[in-house]
Amino acid sequence: MFCEKAVELIRELHRMSDGQLPAFNEDSIRQVLEEMKALYDFIYIFDSFIISHNSATEGKSELIPTIKFRHCCLLRNQRCITAYLYDRLLRIRALRWEYGSVLPTTIRFHMCAEELEWFNQYKKSLATYMRSLGGEEGLDITQDMKPPKSLYIEVRCLKDHGEFEIDDGTVILLKKNSQHFLPRWKCEQLIRQGVLEHVIS
Amino acid sequence: ESVAHFDRAVLLFQAWLNEKFSPELLENKSELVECVMEQLMHMEENLQRVRKGDLKASVHRMEIDRIRFVLSSYLRSRLQKIEKFFPHVLEKEKSRADGDPSFLSPEEFAFAKEYLANTEVYLKAVALRHMPPNLQSIDMLKAVPEPCLDSFVFLRVKERQENILVEPETDEQREYVVDLEEGSQHLMRYRTIAPLVASGAVQLI
């Protein structure tokens, strides 16, 4: 049945409802594109041939539903592929806000070259926009994701991260399993990256 | 000076709530954003002068963080809507008359154009150029959904409004008019009160 592979692509993304990015399904896309080429050839070569070589009018009009059907399949395939690709872009966009401008390698492996390029362009666009805010250095709106509740928070270090300087100049050594009482706004990004963990007692 | 600061923070707070709860992108408030950023800069400078460890410093710090959070959240709300409805946002901006207020700041406009171009280039490169000749383009205005102006919103009335026309919900109902009393709160379709949000007569909550 036509369009099955295309619908499978949609189902694949639908299964991952938490926004995770599965590996780029190059194989399935290629198959759908091949099916589209076959459908197109059917209409424009095969059906046209039949129509032009069939002198009786009934012969011609009998093919019209077939042509319409094939055209619908073409449109459906186009729609499914673009929906699949666009939904992936939305997930990739969310990664910039979740992980920052450097993506973990495991995630990068799931992206095709063009998606990485889209991500780079998006990063640049966003950075240009943020720099333009206000007079001077701009405003990083990927920070301050949660309303501030307290000034300082207790954090535990989940992995070795080396030295970390806070506003008044003191340097903290972030060693795995060490606990610190640090200014909240300094820790936000590290918490999101999984380096620190907010300890709620 | 602190009175002016307070007013601006209140204006920002109101703009933030309106933008958060409105289904469509609202008028851009670049001047307010600039003022608030200036205010934040002054507050940071003042903070440097206060002795470290002084209780006042903590309170100031908290205040700065709060305002910065609201400002960031406000700008994020806008950016999210710009990205979500990008072809429609750009179309609206392009077809706006010269005197009408702009919905996008120049920087947001540039961002939206880049987002459109980036996405189009991507779709062409990965799929569209491999498709049959008559299917190599997509009408973005048709493909990307428009904001749903019929979604319901909570609102508080700031200035009394008379004779607001409410559309019927079911076939049996007929359209009717309501008066919105100052201070009252309602749950209505956004479309009905959209112009009142723009004018400041109601506040989305």
UniProtKB/TrEMBL annotation, chain A:
<feature type="domain" description="DNA replication complex GINS protein PSF1 C-terminal">
    <location>
        <begin position="149"/>
        <end position="200"/>
    </location>
</feature>
<comment type="function">
    <text>Required for correct functioning of the GINS complex, a complex that plays an essential role in the initiation of DNA replication, and progression of DNA replication forks. GINS complex seems to bind preferentially to single-stranded DNA.</text>
</comment>
<dbReference type="InterPro" id="IPR036224">
    <property type="entry name" value="GINS_bundle-like_dom_sf"/>
</dbReference>
<comment type="subunit">
    <text>Component of the GINS complex.</text>
</comment>
<dbReference type="InterPro" id="IPR021151">
    <property type="entry name" value="GINS_A"/>
</dbReference>
<protein>
    <recommendedName>
        <fullName>DNA replication complex GINS protein PSF1</fullName>
    </recommendedName>
</protein>
<dbReference type="Pfam" id="PF24997">
    <property type="entry name" value="PSF1_C"/>
</dbReference>
<keyword id="KW-0539">Nucleus</keyword>
<feature type="domain" description="GINS subunit">
    <location>
        <begin position="61"/>
        <end position="133"/>
    </location>
</feature>
<keyword id="KW-0235">DNA replication</keyword>
<comment type="function">
    <text>Required for correct functioning of the GINS complex, a complex that plays an essential role in the initiation of DNA replication, and progression of DNA replication forks. GINS complex is a core component of CDC45-MCM-GINS (CMG) helicase, the molecular machine that unwinds template DNA during replication, and around which the replisome is built.</text>
</comment>
<dbReference type="GO" id="GO:1902983">
    <property type="term" value="P:DNA strand elongation involved in mitotic DNA replication"/>
</dbReference>
<dbReference type="GO" id="GO:0000811">
    <property type="term" value="C:GINS complex"/>
</dbReference>
<comment type="similarity">
    <text>Belongs to the GINS1/PSF1 family.</text>
</comment>
<dbReference type="InterPro" id="IPR056783">
    <property type="entry name" value="PSF1_C"/>
</dbReference>
<keyword id="KW-0158">Chromosome</keyword>
<dbReference type="InterPro" id="IPR005339">
    <property type="entry name" value="GINS_Psf1"/>
</dbReference>
<dbReference type="Pfam" id="PF05916">
    <property type="entry name" value="Sld5"/>
</dbReference>
UniProtKB/TrEMBL annotation, chain B:
<feature type="domain" description="DNA replication complex GINS protein SLD5 C-terminal">
    <location>
        <begin position="147"/>
        <end position="205"/>
    </location>
</feature>
<keyword id="KW-0539">Nucleus</keyword>
<dbReference type="GO" id="GO:0000727">
    <property type="term" value="P:double-strand break repair via break-induced replication"/>
</dbReference>
<keyword id="KW-0235">DNA replication</keyword>
<dbReference type="InterPro" id="IPR008591">
    <property type="entry name" value="GINS_Sld5"/>
</dbReference>
<comment type="function">
    <text>Required for initiation of chromosomal DNA replication. Core component of CDC45-MCM-GINS (CMG) helicase, the molecular machine that unwinds template DNA during replication, and around which the replisome is built.</text>
</comment>
<dbReference type="InterPro" id="IPR021151">
    <property type="entry name" value="GINS_A"/>
</dbReference>
<feature type="domain" description="GINS subunit">
    <location>
        <begin position="55"/>
        <end position="124"/>
    </location>
</feature>
<keyword id="KW-0158">Chromosome</keyword>
<dbReference type="GO" id="GO:0000811">
    <property type="term" value="C:GINS complex"/>
</dbReference>
<protein>
    <recommendedName>
        <fullName>DNA replication complex GINS protein SLD5</fullName>
    </recommendedName>
</protein>
<comment type="similarity">
    <text>Belongs to the GINS4/SLD5 family.</text>
</comment>
<dbReference type="Pfam" id="PF05916">
    <property type="entry name" value="Sld5"/>
</dbReference>
<dbReference type="GO" id="GO:0006261">
    <property type="term" value="P:DNA-templated DNA replication"/>
</dbReference>
<dbReference type="Pfam" id="PF16922">
    <property type="entry name" value="SLD5_C"/>
</dbReference>
<dbReference type="InterPro" id="IPR038749">
    <property type="entry name" value="Sld5_GINS_A"/>
</dbReference>
<dbReference type="InterPro" id="IPR036224">
    <property type="entry name" value="GINS_bundle-like_dom_sf"/>
</dbReference>
<dbReference type="InterPro" id="IPR031633">
    <property type="entry name" value="SLD5_C"/>
</dbReference>
